[in-house]
Amino acid sequence: MVEVPTAVRDASVKLALDTPLRQGIGQVSKARIGGLFVLGDDDSVAAICEQGFPIDNVTASAENIAQFSKMDLALVLSADAAEIRRFNTVLSPRSTVLAQGVGARHVTAARTARDISFPVVAVSEETGQVTLFVGEHAHVLSSQTVLLSKAAVVLLALHSWVRTLTDEPQDITETAELAERVRHAVLEVEAYLLELGSKGDYVEQVLDGLCAEVGVDRLPLDPYRVPRRVPLLHAVAEELDTWHEQALQAADRILAERPGQVLRQHDRAFPRVAFDNDREAVQWCEQTAAQLLGSIRRAAANGDNELALRRSLAMMEYFYRRKPWSEWIDVLMLALFAARGLGDKRAEASLLTSLGVAQRELRNHELAFALWAAADDAWRACGDRLGRAELLNHLAYAYDEVGDSAAGLDYAQRALDLIGPDEDDRLRGKVLNNSSGIHCRQGELDRALVLADEAMQAFDRAGYRRGVIWALSNKGNAYRDAGRHAEAVRCYETALTARIESEEHYGAAITRADLGHALKAVGEVSRAREELQLAEAYFRQLGDPRADAITRTLSELDV
C-alpha cells in the first residue's frame, strides 16, 4: 500500500482536481508548454527569484494560470493559491541536490522545494507529467481516470478484507493482520481522495460504508482533508423511464453486433425504439448521455445494484467508440461495485478487464496489468474459460505494446488454446488479428498476412463486421511494411469508409494516420497531409499521445 508523507498530503489539497489551480496546471500539461509553479510567496521565495514581473490583484483562475505560463519560466502564487504574485521568473535555488526528472524544470523544482517552505510543481513540456515537490519529497500527480482506477483496485481488496473480518471467524493473529491491511488501505484511498476532490464523491461513499462496517474512524487522518462535497444523490439527473431503458438496450445490440435481451414494453404511450445503423445508435447515446449517466449514478447511490450494472454494461460499446475517458472509467467504477454488491463474479471480471483496457489505451500499462491480474483471479473464480481467453488477448496486445513481443505471442497462443474448435469465432478472430499485428511489428510480414486473412474469415463467420474492418486494417499495415504501398492504401481506404459510416471515430483516426503514411510513401503528399491533420486533431482533442508522433510526421512533410 502507498504511504503518502503528511507534507505531500497537505499540498495535495491545494491541487485537487476541482480547484482552479489544478485545472490551470492541467491546461498547461495538455498544451505541452511546460511549467514551473511556486505555491507560496514570502521573503525566502523572493530571495531566489530573479528577473520576472511582480503583479498585484491577479486572480489565480485556471485561465490566468494557463495564459501566464505561456511566457515560460516560473509562476509564483500566494500561499492560498488565490492570486498570482509573480510571472516569467527565474528561480535560482541554493540547493545543489541531484533530482531525478525529465528535464531542467524538475531539477529546479526539486532544488527550490528544499530551499523554501512551500510546495513547488513542475510540468514536463515533453510528456505533460505533473510532479509535486515538497521538501525532499516528490509526488507525481495523476489524472482523474488513473486515480479512480487505483482507488477501485484498493477498494476491491478492502471490500474482501472487510467481508472476511465481519463474516468469518478469525484468530487474534489473523484479525490483527487484516485490521492493519484495512488501515493502510483506508490511508491509501484517503490520499487519492485528496487529489480527486469532488470528483471522488462515489469513492468516498464506498469508503465510508466499508469503514462503518468495521468501525474504522477515518478522522482525524488529516487536519486539512478535503471536506465532503454535495452527496452524489443530489448531483445526478433524474431516473430514466422504461422507454429510455429499452432504447439503450436497442443501441447496445446494434453497436455490439450481437443479439441481446429485448425488454417487454411496459407503457404503450412510448413507441418501441429501433436503430437502422451504428450512426443512429451512437447519436442517440450522445444526445441522452447525461440522462443515462445520471440514472446509473442515482441507481448506485440508492443501492439499486442490478439497475446500475445493467445500464452500465449497456453503455460499454458506446464508450469504446467515443472514448470519453472520465465518464467511461467513472461508469466502470460504479458498475464494478454494483457487480460486487450482487455477487456477480462474471460481471466483475468483465468490468475489471474493461477498466484495464481503458487504462492501457491511456498508456497506463502498469495500472492496466494490476487491474488485469485482479480480473484473472475473478475469471478463474467463476470458471469462465472464454472470459480468460479475452483477457489473455488484451495482455498479448499490451505486452507487445511495451516491447515484449515474445510474451505477447505467448499470451495470444494461450488465448487460442482456450477457445474450442467450434467456439466463438468472434473471439478467435480477435486473437488471430492481434497475433497478426504482433508478427507485423516483428517484421514477419508473410505470417502477418496469413493471420489477417484467417481473422477476417473468423469474423465473417461470426457476422462481426467491425472485426472484418480491424483485420483489413492490419492487412494494410503488413502491406505497408512490405513496401506494397498501393495495396496498403486500398485496404486503408476501405477500412476508413466503413469506420466513418459506423461512427467509429477513434478507429477512423487510427486508419487516417495509417493511410497518411501510406499516401506519403506513394508520393501523394497533399492527401497524406490532409489525412494526418485530421487524425492529429482528433487525437489531440482526446489527449492521446499518438498526436505527438503525427505532429512529427507532418513536420517532415513540410521540409
TrEMBL record:
SUPFAM superfamilies, sorted: TPR-like, YojJ-like
Keyword vocabulary terms for this entry: ATP-binding, Nucleotide-binding, Nucleotidyltransferase, Transferase
Catalytic activity entry: 2 ATP = 3',3'-c-di-AMP + 2 diphosphate
Keyword flag Ribosomal protein: no
Pfam families (alphabetical): DAC, TPR_12
The DAC domain, residue ranges: 5-144
A single MF term (Gene Ontology): adenylate cyclase activity
Name of the featured protein: DNA integrity scanning protein DisA with diadenylate cyclase activity
